[in-house]
Amino acid sequence: MNSSQEPTLSANVAGLMDNASLQREKSSLDAMPVYVKELIAGGFAGALSKTSVAPLERVKILWQTRTPGYHSHGVYQSLNRIVKNEGFLGLYKGNGASVIRIVPYAALHFMTYDRYKCWILDNCPMLGSGPVVDLLAGSAAGGTSVLFTYPLDLARTKLAYQVADTRGSIENGLKLVHSRPAQNGIKGVLTSVYKEGGVRGLYRGVGPTLTGILPYAGLKFYMYEKLKMHVPEEHRKSILMRLSCGALAGLFGQTVTYPLDVVKRQMQVGSLQNSVHGEVRYKNAFDGLRTIAANQGWRQLFAGVSINYIRIVPSAAISFTTYDMMKAWLGISPQHKKSQSSSAT
């Protein structure tokens, strides 16, 4: 063999090795169950979208829980105050708990949505295959994911709230009174809550969460699929289209259910509220809505809604778009999913 043939031979061997590697990777993906692929896609989408808006989520929680020094400020002032008092990383306090929660939450949310949708399509043909199915499947998926991951959401809220309210400081001439020291990490919060209230304590605020998530999750998926139906076929795979539809779907769902989110946050941090506000004890979601409107004013039911609009646009857009793209990369097709569901039933 002469030297001029050696580069060509080396290139061919390298090409064959690359192709073999790609085929092995593709084969391992094909062998993976569809629901596992959906869990991976949903978890990745959730983590990416949540981290991208973590600073805004922190400010929203501080507003919703009427934390002194924050609830009367604007977005920029609040972000500035956090950085000044706690440093840049303060913007991401509680985000660890948020990501740990959102990965299983989003994974279950998207996976069970696809599973419920397939089941409805296979067993309830009278409903057709339009967005109504997405509404029902999305609502059921939202409830399922909340029940499995709620204690982590409780821990995330307590961490975000406590960190901002644990410094002995003076605001407007009044020394803040702190009911307890801040817990260190998710385990510390969950252990403390469990010792105080048992399993019931870990699910404080789950009532308004479920009341809000059922319509929110359903409307979000309904609007996303409905909007995509009005997009020309040739543009449906466009990233910009998916981002736009996801953002609009999130905005619509949040507007309808936002007051319930405020009730949930106040119930979650009830025992941490300082003496200025007293402990928050609501019998249920509707009692919370009525009490907040009567004692704090109806505007408090929408405390933080402006920042939530700013937050939900990138969050929902990134979440839906990433999930769709991950499904395409993992090779999940609607036909494949439907046939899997049929065989399982």
Automatic annotation (TrEMBL):
This is Mitochondrial carrier protein CoAc1. Solcar repeats lie at residues 33-119, 129-230, 237-329. InterPro entries: MCP (IPR002067), MCP_dom_sf (IPR023395), MCP_transmembrane (IPR018108). Keywords: Membrane, Repeat, Transmembrane, Transport. Belongs to the mitochondrial carrier (TC 2.A.29) family. It is found in: Membrane. It is a multi-pass membrane protein. GO terms for biological process: transmembrane transport. The keyword Repeat applies. It comes from the Eukaryota. Transmembrane segments: none annotated. One of its GO terms (cellular component) is membrane. PANTHER family: SOLUTE CARRIER FAMILY 25.
